[in-house]
């Protein structure tokens, strides 16, 4: 078992803890409610569109610099040097964040001479926009729109 698995197990509540909370909330049938919660988790974990959203948002939101890079790359192609200057960061830090964005498919690099110029991966953003639009359309719990 790796460290990540151990950490995730520490963050998860046990069935007993969840049932205890459901009983304290005077839920009419805690066992059925627990099974429904497990199904919701499983459905979420196996929904490719929702997993895509999680991955995409984690990619650009993991570090403030990544979101700034995406914003700058939305304006025009930029090299590592361009981004270093605009972000006031050293080369290793910028290179690492660029590498993560490339690995996640958020941006693409194009080699020109000794420099690589980066730009956004339009298809990835279009996929995210389509999935997010669908999610918004399917959501029903909007503030101010609920009927008691």
UniProtKB/TrEMBL annotation:
Swiss-Prot/TrEMBL keywords: DNA-binding, Transcription, Transcription regulation
Top-level taxonomic group: Archaea
InterPro entries, A to Z: ArsR-like_HTH, HTH_ArsR_DNA-bd_dom, HTH_MetalResp_TranReg, WH-like_DNA-bd_sf, WH_DNA-bd_sf
SMART domains referenced in this protein's UniProt entry, alphabetically: HTH_ARSR
Gene3D superfamilies named among the record's database cross-references: Winged helix-like DNA-binding domain superfamily/Winged helix DNA-binding domain (1.10.10.10)
PROSITE patterns xrefs: HTH_ARSR_2 (PS50987)
Pfam families: HTH_5 (PF01022)
Claim: Amino-acid biosynthesis is one of the keywords in the record: no
Record domain HTH arsR-type: where: 46-140
Protein name: HTH arsR-type domain-containing protein
Organism: Candidatus Lokiarchaeum ossiferum
């Amino acid at each position: 078992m790796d460290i990540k698995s151990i950490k995730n197990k520490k963050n998860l509540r046990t069935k007993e803890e969840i049932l205890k909370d459901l009983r304290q909330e005077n839920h009419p049938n805690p066992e059925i409610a627990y099974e429904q919660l497990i199904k919701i988790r499983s459905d979420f974990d196996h929904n490719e569109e929702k997993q895509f959203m999680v991955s995409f948002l984690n990619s650009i939101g993991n570090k403030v610099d990544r979101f700034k890079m995406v914003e700058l790359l939305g304006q025009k192609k930029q090299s590592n040097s361009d981004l270093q200057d605009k972000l006031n960061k050293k080369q290793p830090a910028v290179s690492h964040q660029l590498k993560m964005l490339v690995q996640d498919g958020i941006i693409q690099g194009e080699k020109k001479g000794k420099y690589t110029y980066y730009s956004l991966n339009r298809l990835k953003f279009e996929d995210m926009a389509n999935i997010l639009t669908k999610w918004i359309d399917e959501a029903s719990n909007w503030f101010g729109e609920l009927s008691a």
